[in-house]
Sequence to fold (1002 residues):
Amino acid sequence: MTDLLTVSDLHKDFGGVRAVDGVSFTVRAGETLGLVGESGCGKSTTARLVTRLLEPTSGSVRFDGHEISRYPERKLRPLRRDLQIVFQDPIASLNPRHTAGTILAAPFRIQGVRPPGGLRAAVAELMARVGLNPEHYNRYPHEFSGGQRQRLGIARALALRPKLVVCDEPVSALDASVQAQVVNLLADLRDEYGLSYLFVAHDMAVVRHLSDRVAVMYLGRIVELADRDTLYAAPRHPYTRALLSAVPVPDPALRGRRERVLLRGDPPAAGEAAVGCRFRGRCPRYRDDLDDTQRERCATEDPQLSSDPSGAVACHFPGH
Amino acid sequence: MPVETTPPADPLLSVRDLRVQFPTDDGLVRAVDGLSFDVAPGEIVGVVGESGSGKSVTGQAILGLLRRTRARVTGEIRFDGRDLVTAPEAELRRLRGAELAMVFQDPLSALHPYYTVGSQVSEAYRVHNRVSKRAARERAVQMLDRVGIPEPHRRYGAYPHEFSGGMRQRVMIAMALVCTPRLLIADEPTTALDVTVQAQILELLGDLRDEFGSAVLLVTHDLGVVAETCDSVVVMYAGQCVEQAGVEDLFARPQAPYTWGLLGSMPRVDRDRRDRLAPIGGQPPSLLAIPPGCAFEPRCGYHEEVPESRCVDERPALVHDGQGRAVRCHLTAGQRLTLRPVAP
Amino acid sequence: MLRYLLGRIAGALTVVVVVSVVTFAIFQLAPRLTGANMAFYYTGKSTSEAQAAAVAQKFGFDKPLPEQYWTFMSGIVAGRDLSDGVTEVRCPAPCLGYSFRQNRPVLEMIGEAFPVTLGLTLGAAVLWLLFGVAAGVLSAVRRGSVFDRLATAVALIGVSVPEFFTGMLLIYLLTSGPAWLRLYPDGINYVPLTEDPVGWFAAMVPPWTCLALLFAALYARLTRATMLETLSEDYVRTAWAKGLPPRTVVGRHGLRAVLPPIVTLVGLDVGALLGGVVLVETLFSFPGLGRLAYRAITSQDLPVIMGVTIVGALLIVCANLIVDLLYGVLDPRVRNAR
Fold:
């Protein structure tokens, strides 16, 4: 597989606060990379940097052979055909004064694409494909339900058959029954069009369902990156283990029988703890399992993401 | 035709045929539409449903918080023998905070931004207890300590914005439990929090229930939270209870097609990954026009199993089996046993 | 908090300097552009050519503007020797200028007029706060009630009827209206507080009422809107859920949140009014700053106009500063933010 998107050592500062602090990953053609973490970990900022809605402070973003981290908007525009984003809040990302038809025709107009059967037919087909009634062509975003609006957002992103779609929490505002519809739709579209996704979300279960590989972020860094099955079956970073064990599971029979790694405290604000491992303050392994010399290493040495055949982890003393 | 039956136990809270309606310009919004369920003393009951199912409105109706709105509340909310729907405001006020307390979804907006957290907790204590300011302060510090606020003496004088989300929700819980109420209504208490913080708060709620003996009505959209925290569950759809059961029973042998759909919709980390989720088709009904028959019928895959299109014409009754289970569905018990999708 | 405080004070000082420059520039440049002889604005129309030349020389109208500005500003600190070509006068520090028409330093005139305006403004503010806020809170709590509708109607009238109309009506009714209303048969005449407190109070009541009527209406509307918004906040719902009585919910939790915007507005309004309540003072013939400015303008007494403008601007800046500081006290989030 070829690498469609390669991000290396990406940084983004907001007024002195490091939101993204040296993030590197690749998305291969046809695969879905999940990017998961809690609020403030920098995952959404990363999504915006990769799609160049934000300009990185430093680092490189290579998309489809182009180094786009410093591209001006003029040079980005033709690439946007292949690089699209779907946002969390469909109502905020759709112009309330435009009809569904206008919204979905915009990508064609902006890129100067003339679909063979005409614009109107292309839009109707697009609507049908994402499960919207093409007769609702003239409706405004507020006349659709939340799930339908998200379908509209997805249709807009997919209008020109992009190569990579960055999904930024695309289903977290939706109710469970509707969320499942949209998750299935995303999976179907990917298989049908051979899309690649960078799937950014906080929900471990949804990320697992859609991703081939998963990266876990904590305080602006990727702390673990591995194949989906490896990561969920045998998480190695103490944070990944805690995150996974905290996911509530709809099976009361497992209550009290699952491994529970309770973290103390809240995720700290970005920009704190400059020396050593930034997770050690909440790390159960640091607290319970390590001896003093090992702790000394955590306190002084910042663990880097190091790869081996089963994945990559940024921890001095990862689990098995 | 089955008749609505009452369960045998002697509940702390008993809601019968509760209706909450909001008159709007577009018509009557039926937020809660004939809801019945029970909460036993010391029990944690999960009220689970999607947005618009009426679960949050139910919590507010129990506390009488809808009295200041245009909402029309009818039916019966029996708490410890008293009917809260008809109780005079003065009596309700004596109960609020003392016997019935509430924790809300967003602790930042639910705490007053201009008062210290300590003063807000001790105020809650002083409303219902004739004690000196000093004694109330001591009690508040003790509660803050109990819910896990570090350095409670010092943090007593801090303002809500100086706390993290999880710590704020701890403050809310301290405030709600300061008078050791017999029923705590927790309205999506962890929805605004990160998953690792959610785990802490849910554990805290469980511990506090054991310590204070308060029953908890946990309103949530997350079946996972229910499974990990609750003793029994009320599943709501379009303002009605479609199923009530003990938590193990519900997840092991769900009876209502809507519950089947909810469970099938969830991606899970505790099971092997499926290639596709099994969502419920369509959208929840508009609360302005709830179908006259079964509210779930338009989205239900099993209505053809019921003869004479009863699902369309006749609203199913909530039928109790006498062992703490109730379900609102026209399918027979035998049909439900054979039709239920096998858990993957 | 200290950083916030220092930041605000530094900001206020900058504004004061800018204001003085702008005021000076406007009043010194404008006559030049229209081609009028500056000297006449200082001494009067009947001035002889020779006298005008002497004034121009003494004031240095031919010197570059920055230098003139500097002379003016240093006069505030050190005092100035001035002359209208006939008499030499010493204008002691702090010297804001000297009116040759009145033969008095401007500051002395302002010092005499200011207490009148201060009394007028503060008294009226107390009245409009009392009635405006109370009416607004009641309206919000009993939204849609008869009281609410009545208050809204009264507020609408209060906002739309101009001050000079209510003022003239008051003066007419109280001095020459029907006998039972003729409480001031000898007219409403200002008496200094230090001479006769009762007389002062009696004389103040009608202009207070006139001013407060307008502002009470504005404040009632603001309070009602803010209170309604506050009462739908989550933290007010929390207060109900605690079992607090309505009095406490509205009075402690609701009103507390309404305070910051009201305080802001009071500060700005009082600051602006202190610079001169022109209409009301002129109407009631009260010797305040507003009337002083009005008379200076009609007689083209430039030093007085400039002095009143600078003092007025200074008062607004001070009021703004006080509002900012109060905001820091009232809103803990502001206190920590900077």
In short: Residues 3-82+162-313 of chain A form a domain with the Rossmann fold fold (CATH 3.40.50.300).
